[in-house]
Amino acid sequence: MTAFLSHFMVQGGPILWWLAAVVALCWLLVIERIFFISFSFPIQRKRWIEQWQQRNDHESWYAKTIREGWISEAHLQLNQYLNFIKVLVAICPMLGLLGTVTGMISVFDVMANQGSSQPKLMASGISLATLPTMAGMVAALAGMFVHARLAKVCRRKEHQLEKALRSQS
C-alpha cells in the first residue's frame, strides 16, 4: 500500500503533495467537528437545558435574551470551522487543475526539446497532468459530501436545542 501511494505521489508531481496537505487538514477539521458534535456539544447542551430548567422566570425579556444567547452560542460552536472546511474543499479541484497545467507544460517542454517521437517521455507528462486533476476531484467530491452532512447535523442539533429550551418554558 505504501509503495502504491509513494508511486502515485511521484507520478502526480509536486502539486499532489500540496493537495495531500490540504486534504489532510480538511479531514483533521472534519474529525474535530465529529468529536465536538458527538462528545463536547451534548455536555454543553445538557448544561444549558439544566440551567434553563432551574430558572423560575422563562417569559421575561431577560430570560428570552439568555435563551437566545445560548442558542446563538450553540450556533457559533456548531458551525465553527465549517466555512474553512468548505474553502479547503473548493481548493482541491483548483490544485488539481494547477497540476494539469504544470503537467501539460512538462509535456510541451518534452515535445519542444525531444520532439513528439518519444511517447514514453510524453506519457510521464500526461500522467503528471491527469493524476492531480483526478485526485483533486475525488477529494472535492468526498469533502462536499462530508461538509453537507456536517452542516445538516449542526442545523439539526441547533434546532433540537432551540426546541428543548422553548418546550421547557
Which structural class should the secondary elements be placed in?
mainly alpha
Number of domains: 1
Number of helices: 5
Terminal Cα separation, in Å?
57 Å
Can you give the mean pLDDT? 92
Number of beta-strand segments: 0
In the predicted model, the low-confidence regions spanning at least 5 consecutive residues are none
CA radius of gyration: 24 Å
Helix content: over 70%
Q: What this model shows, in words?
A:
This protein is mostly helical. It has one domain (18-167). The protein has helices at 2-12, 14-54, 61-79, 82-114, 119-167.
Q: What are the defining features of this structure?
A:
169 residues; mainly alpha
Please render the helix and strand layout as text.
Blueprint: H1 2-12, H2 14-54, H3 61-79, H4 82-114, H5 119-167
